[in-house]
Amino acid sequence: MGQTGDTAPIAELLDERQHLLNVARWMLGNGRAAEDAVTETYRRWYTLTDKQRTGITEPRIWLTKSTGTICLARLSVPERPLPNPEGKGPDARTEFDPALTEEISDVLLNALNALSPTERAAFVLNDVFAMPPQTVADIVGRTPHECAELADRARRSLRTSRAHPTTPREHDKIVRAVRQACVTTDPAHLVSLLSPHATAFFDGGGKIRALTRPVHGSEQVTRVLLTLLAPRPHTTLHLNSANGRTAIVVRHNDQVAAVISFDIAGHHVTHVWAVMNPDKLRSWNRHHLPSHGHGPRGD
């Protein structure tokens, strides 16, 4: 929204409000609290003078920063009420918002609630909404580097809290099967390897055109993975260890282009974490890694 003052197409204004609600819901995990945060955001907007508002060239960015700051402040309040997936308790405000649970499972919401306020904010703003590092830093009140570390710590915490114990051998077996399904472009096989509620996150770091929102559901994740890993000349899929577990390493022209890790529970993939950010792949490209796996796209 770059128009003068408050003049903009109604569709753009509605899209702007929905964007702010999405940010607030992911950060707070509660529909009513999100509505309150967005209402406060617009209240702050209208407390600005006409001259101040006119001087804001990107109102959407200003509003997003305000919403994030408001949510972070509310996350930091001691003993804040947490969402209750069963809707129990006297406070109706603790129920999960139906609109939010269409995008994110109750289990993942509970895992997000286990993060510190700054970790949750950094993860949501960076991984879910792919906001520029400086914008995330302005909201969280840390440097971009510190925010990147917070987001990394949040990812590790989420993986630990979400993943049920799976032996390395079982994990390796399932990841090999996922790779094979991608190599042969077999959607039925790939769907069978994923949990019905599987979620995929894509980290492009704003430096490659990656998906900016998580993808949910086995069929949707399958479609995205098969599109992302579609056979192309000079592109190969290898198996290597990442964080102590088997992962798929995608090479293009012998450069690592993506590292895809998996959380597995009950013999099914529950989470896919695709790192495509060139900055985070530098260590992978410093030396030629040995690869494992079989097939025309593996060796």
UniProtKB/TrEMBL annotation:
Residues making up the signal peptide according to the UniProt record: none
Protein name: RNA polymerase sigma-70 factor (ECF subfamily)
Transmembrane segments: none
Alphabetical list of InterPro entries matching this protein: ECF_Sigma-70_Domain, NTF2-like_dom_sf, RNA_pol_sigma_r2, RNA_pol_sigma_r3/r4-like, WH-like_DNA-bd_sf
Source domain of life: Bacteria
Species lineage: Bacteria, Bacillati, Actinomycetota, Actinomycetes, Kitasatosporales
Organism for this UniProt entry: Streptomyces umbrinus
